[in-house]
Every structure is written in structure tokens, then in C-alpha cells.
Amino acid sequence: MGALVVEPHRVKVMTDILYRYFIVVVACAALLIGLQIPNFVDQYQKRVDAHLREVTINLQPFQEIANKYFAGDIGKLIELHRASNEKALQDEGAAIEQMVTRKLRFETDMAALNTTLPLKALHVMFHGDHEMLNEVTSQYGYAVPLNQDALTFGVCVAMIILLLVELLLALSRTIAKRISHKTSALQVE
């Protein structure tokens, strides 16, 4: 049996073709990921808004009591419940406090989302509420919206990922050349 001999030129041509297809696949995947970002941020913001509205409605009767008896200070109502000798009222105070904390958390999140889309995306990515992120990801509906925001994000993400891939490949080629030079230098000695 004869050994398969492949000319170095043909190997380079095949490698170049595979590299181009690889880059096209990476670009397409990055574009599709980037197109999802505005949609994901929108679903996240709508979910936070819905939870904020819900907790505000649930807290409203207690706020009205605080307005009537404590000049609007719901903290004093919570203290009254917690200081009670009745376990049920103590537990109710804890429940009211939990709702107040939840409302403040959602208000803070909504305030952070009251900005431009890129800043919203960064907020969701790095400071998003874990409960909301879990809800959005578990019920996320993939879509390919073809609006300006989605296309901008898609192109930007694709460019960033392609640049990173190119940098990593250039770095790996440089390292491979240095290793081969060291190896050939050792073989010469």
C-alpha cells in the first residue's frame, strides 16, 4: 500500500476553504444571538413592570392603612405588627415587609431600565434581577425581529465575536510558529 501524499499547497487551499466556512457559520450564529438581545431585554422589562404593578396592587390596602394612621409611613405599620403579641400579626408584619422590599427591588430595576437599549442590555446582563432572569429564560419566546435595534445589535455582536475569533486564531498561529521555531532550533542543535 502506498502512503497518501498531499501537496502542501492543496492542504493550504483546503484549510482556507474550511476557515472561510467556519467564519461564515460563526458570523451567522453571532448575528442570530445578537438579534435576540433587544427581544430578551423587552421581555425582561415587561416582566419586571408586571411584577411591580402586581406588588403595588397587593400593597395598596396596607399603604392606605399607613396613610390613615401613620402619615403614610408603612415602616411604622410594619413595626406595629412586629411588636404585637399576636403571632399572626407578627407574621403579617413580615409579609408586608417582604412586599415592600420586593416593590423597592422592582422600582430600582425599572429605574435602571429607563435608558437606552445598549445600557438596558448591559444592566440586564450584569445586574439583572435573578428571579426575573430565571422567569424570562424559562418562558422566553425566540423571535427574529427585523427592526433597527435588533439588526444593530445583531451586526454589533457578530462583529465583536468575529474580531475575537480572528484575534484568537492569530494568537494561536503566532504561538504555533514560535513553538515550531523552537522545535526546529532544538533539532538543528
How would you describe this protein?
This protein has 189 residues and is an all-alpha fold. The protein has one domain (17-188). It is 84% helix and 0% strand. It has helices at 8-69, 74-83, 87-112, 117-127, 130-138, 148-188. α1 crosses α2 (74-83) and α1 crosses α4 (117-127). The protein is elongated, with a radius of gyration of 29 Å. It starts with 7 loop residues before the first helix and ends with a helix.
Span between termini: 35 Å
Total separate domains: 1
| Classification by helices and strands | mainly alpha
Helix content: over 70%
Choose one word for the global shape: elongated
The total count of helices amounts to 6
The major β-sheet equals: none
Q: What does the average pLDDT come to?
A: 89
Q: What would you call the quaternary organization?
A: single chain
Order of helices and strands: HHHHHH
- Over all CA atoms, what is the radius of gyration? 29 Å
Number of strands: 0
What fraction of residues sit in β-strands?
under 5%
Low-confidence stretches: none
Task: Sum this structure up briefly.
By secondary structure, this protein is mostly helical.
Strands, helices and their partners?
Blueprint: H1 8-69, H2 74-83, H3 87-112, H4 117-127, H5 130-138, H6 148-188
Helix pairs in contact: 1-2, 1-3, 1-4, 1-5, 1-6, 2-3
